[in-house]
């Protein structure tokens, strides 16, 4: 009974090995095939015989791997532990990749050949895709259907500032600005729908700097079509956006230059008449105070005439004649005009003009700079507001500060300051500050803005004359 049971089980094992879908064979230490199942005979085109096939398995092995496999068989036939080798075999009229599991027995080895060609191809394609992703200048990352980051390439680190360790596993909300929750929710909804989508937006880096992006979303599915999430490609278009803004600015300036040329011509005619009458009145009076006022008015008419000439060259590179001057002397000569302008608006100007080093500047342009900053400051204040104009020296620099006590400048407007035609005032043209920035640049100075709830300070720093 026991013998019958053993034979029955042995027959079942033989049937199982013979019908196994993966190639199985027995080889001696020289690689001679002692037995092979039907799958092996089919895959490797081995003629089926009732006797053991008289063929060497090494003849199916790629020449580069034959010597190594011969050594493995010789060692394993001596009773060593099993091992697995990845080798290239000639099967089905092609070189295919197999994983060869070798199990030692007495003077022979049982060998199971598993075709891993598709797996190897997939792994190679995956490596290629990963290489492309890592070499890309665009941020490429994967999100699951809940918006969690699952992969993060090198460009994503450069653009957003988060390392892969910091980003992977976090929700994509870490890249969003406050107030963008609805946008992120809409993106996650698109991912869950398996939709493809592209749009422009703004995100923040780890250091909270803003970055303009063009984002493309595409679904990721497994081999059965099940939605896993989405791949995201984020292209940094910050520089492109700035370039577009600059081109737009230049277009507006060209339009303005044409308009300014016409206006300057028309305005100069009545100004010439006004200048003539001022000279007549100046000759008829002997009052010193009136003569002083007429002189100031005449000088201002000349300056306005010069400004009109400047308008037609706005946006063009030009040289200005600069002389060694002190800011105190330039501003002091303007004091009566500035005080009169402030008094007309019901506001006050306070001067704190300290003696400073001289600096090389164009006096007319500095007068225009002070006047524009002063008028902007006055317009930013309520009635009885106080505007302060100060001069000082520090570290071989000469500093001009114009401070108002208004409500400050909104953060979103700060980076637009100095852009032609940008103004927060209903009737403003945005040219006043633009001209200030042009003057500052031409006179080798820098302009910084400090703003808050207690007012705004425009600080212009000039290099001291050597």
Description:
- This protein is of the alpha+beta class.
- The chain folds into four domains: 14-115, 2-Layer Sandwich (Beta-Lactamase); 121-236, 2-Layer Sandwich (Beta-Lactamase), CATH 3.30.450; 237-318, Helix Hairpins; 320-466, Heat Shock Protein 90 (2-Layer Sandwich).
- Helix content is 43%, strand content 26%.
- The chain is built from 13 helices and 17 strands.
- The longest helix has 47 residues, at 238-284.
- It is rod-shaped, with a radius of gyration of 42 Å.
Quick one: how many beta strands?
17
The CATH architecture category of the largest domain equals 2-Layer Sandwich
Describe the strand arrangement of the main beta sheet, using strand numbers: 2-1-5-4-3
Low-confidence stretches: 1-10
What do the pLDDT scores average to? 82
